[in-house]
């Protein structure tokens, strides 16, 4: 205890000053060691950042060991710095092994940089995701169908890596699927794990495409086992579905000139063939009146023109225009159709009453 007190007194209360400073500076190798150690402390995080840090540490401690052996002539300085060099080399070997262990093919490496690295997903987690899809990249030729409406079963989840896919329903174009987007995210989210279903849209490749796919059962097992991966897929699928909804919203805006609310119960009734055209086709048939009997031929009797009547006939409604006497029923039907289309362009259609099961 007295020894510690004496040492404390010598350091704090009675410091021993240097009797004389050296008139010359240490060699360049000593200053190089300090500079390399400073660069090492400026490294970042992650595997690559750790390799940067321990790489400069190795070079700095090696320079310090050489300085202790050549200039300082201190055995303890040399031994300590060589021990630190050995430790840094072992750590570097471990980091390089980890980096090579998590190496992926070119397509999966690009996918990690584009999708997972901005979200700071660890490579170990990404390796589990890639392992679930068996590290296979599947091709999709031009004009080939990925899914057919009402026929293809929903038994997988796919992610487009390259190319462009067209999504349609009943022959009506809905939107495109571009690279680094899910092909069937709405079907995946709309169908519970215990149920089976079929696609309600048709997906056709417009160019040569490539994609990866996860089988439904295997992916559900992975999501049930890894909570972090389940949350990651929930975020990615939600973002992808919102992008598709906004794409439909932009299509409605371009078609009608009005901004629609994507929270409508259904957008297909607005995007698909308009039901008003079918109703307009039925109206001329109703205006024709009862059809003549099939067994009797129509007869035309020429009569003298009647005297003008003093009582004027009731005026037609304001929204209907009286057809010309010499025009046929098809002309009147096209006139009504054009009036309906002009009124549809001036106002937004109401929300549909029936919602398709998607």
From TrEMBL:
Bias-annotated ranges (Polar residues): 329-342
Pfam families: POPDC1-3
Domain annotation POPDC1-3: ranges: 26-251
Biological process according to GO: heart development; regulation of membrane potential; skeletal muscle tissue development; striated muscle cell differentiation
Residue numbers spanned by region Disordered: 278-358
Main location (coarse class): membrane
Comp. bias regions, Acidic residues: 278-288
Membrane disposition: Multi-pass membrane protein
GO molecular function ontology, one term from the record: cAMP binding
InterPro entries, per database record: cNMP-bd_dom_sf, POPDC1-3, POPDC1-3_dom, RmlC-like_jellyroll
Cellular localisation: Membrane
Annotated transmembrane regions: 28-45, 51-70, 77-97
Cellular compartments per GO CC: sarcolemma
Keyword list, A-Z: Membrane, Transmembrane, Transmembrane helix
Family per similarity comment: Belongs to the popeye family.
Protein's recorded name: Domain-containing 2 isoform X2
